[in-house]
Amino acid sequence: MTITATTAITVTASGTGTTTGAIRTVLGDVLPGELGVCDAHDHLFLRSPLMPGHELDDPGAALAELDAFAAAGGQAVVQWTPRGMGRHLHALPDLSRRSGVRLVAATGMHQAKHYGQADLTPGVDELAELFVHELTSAPVRAGMIKVAGAYHHLDDHARHVMAAAAGAHHATGAPIGVHLEAGTAALDVLDLLCGTHGVAPDRVLLGHVHRFPDPAIHQQVAEAGAFLVFDGPSRPHHGTDWRLLASLRALVDAGHAHQILLGGDTVTSGARSTADGPGMPFLLTGLRPRIERELGADVAAAILTRNPARAFAVDWRDSPR
């Protein structure tokens, strides 16, 4: 199908399965239909030795950004900040209550370079147990697992963490979000998580796919059944935003509108809407109107509301709180 600016595509549940289970937010589990308009990959808090002076660690600034997102019509944000990177889990419930925005937190680990040596010592089984604890019994529970690949390959650390993430997934059902370095190694990730470790492809969310805007790779990932996360309009040095609509159009034309997610991926204070960047609201004030105009309102609703509800919904394998 060729999409024009006036063509509206109807995206139904046909072929995508029924949305069941619950989404685990920092205030408790909610039904998929209650999640609402969602920024599917972002950060309220973040700290790394690789980014000195750019920490996201101010609860007041985080609340201001959530308020701006809510004012634009946003209802949910998924924070992909994993263990050991300044998640401020204790602050998230209060921020959710005060802003009215549902928040989903992450467990997991990023690339080794973001950590000290002491953080890299747990074995696969021990690491999986840590992830399971944070997903099922921690005071503030995570609703997803974050892992990361390397540039055009998977290094030993990535394979180690992904093995633990797969174990935690099989124990809980939690989805696995993947940082693709510069958008690369997507097929390697699927081969490892799905081929080697038996994770269902629709439980894998591949982040930063827009940073490597190869339509053939996007098509292969979509045909495998994974979610494709287009994120980072707050990252000007990547320079691929101008290809976003073409990438989305190609996937929609091929029947994969139900596998697309959008996120802001705000990683510095200057990228927030309350500073000098587009921030979280831009997904709704900048990108949504373009998607509605070029691909249709129903596609926009699928990408921003229905798809996140499916991507993060889990039949949790523990006692719900």
Description:
The protein has helices spanning about 60-70, 90-100, 125-135, 155-170, 185-195, 215-225, 245-255, 280-295, 295-310; strands at about 25, 30, 40, 75-80, 100-105, 105-110, 145-150, 175-180, 205, 225-230, 260-265. The chain has a six-stranded parallel sheet with strand order 6-7-8-9-10-11. The chain has a three-stranded parallel sheet with strand order 3-4-5. With about 325 residues, the protein is of the alpha/beta class. The N and C termini lie far apart (about 45 Å). The chain contains nine helices and eleven strands. It has a single domain (about 35-310), classed as TIM Barrel (Alpha-Beta Barrel). Strand 4, helix 2 and strand 5 (about 100-105) form a beta-alpha-beta unit.
